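A student in our group prepared the protein record below, which I am reviewing. I have pasted the whole thing underneath without changing anything:
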Amino acid sequence: MSLLELKDVHTYYGAVHALRGVSLKVEEGEIVTLIGSNGAGKTTTLRTISGLERARSGSITLNGKSIEHTAPHEIVRLGVGHSPEGRRVFTRMSVRENLEMGAFLRKPGAEVQADFKKVFDLFPRLKEREFQAAGTMSGGEQQMLAIGRALMGQPKVLLLDEPSMGLAPILVEQIFDIIKEINSRGTAVLLVEQNAMMALGIANRGYILQIGEVTLEDDCKKLANNPKVKEAYLGV
């Protein structure tokens, strides 16, 4: 039984058929990446998993439990964290208040405080900015906060949507190192990332999405050496 599995998922935006039978799986301990051009359905896939969009048909299971008709906050409770495209931090709230929002389903106590410490250990910059308004921070700091907020829900699987978008190259490397560290601590990751080379470099397996369909799946080393993938996504 996979940690997370989608089978033949179809999602629509009105009359637009955005996902056309997407099937994929994430096993415990894995980093899996979704690669595709703009409009391929990558963000829609993550939003459908987290309940922000509804699959019209198909199944989504977490640890064997069906979640395709579950409310988004219950999906968080079950163990899916989501750091969305564009970060979406609460700009007028402090760093700490944003992190508290990530733990809103949990009872306050020692366990939550321990997770604050874990997030601050991963992102020392957030500790330095703990009482600063999130909207006054840099893009890189806001990305760290978005990931930290998702981690405060104690996810079994973390959905990351374009974590390197708009960041300087040195920060991109830092974010990817942090993703590897999060994974090494036991959280599976489903990664959508415009930097396909970097994504394939840290992930175990990958799926290529084109116009809402999975057209290729394989071990990331094989994908990185696939001539069609090289030409379309790696600029080689």
Remarks:
- The longest strand covers residues 16-26.
- The CA atoms of residues 58 and 77 lie 22 Å apart.
- The chain is about 40% helix and 25% strand.
- The radius of gyration is 17 Å.
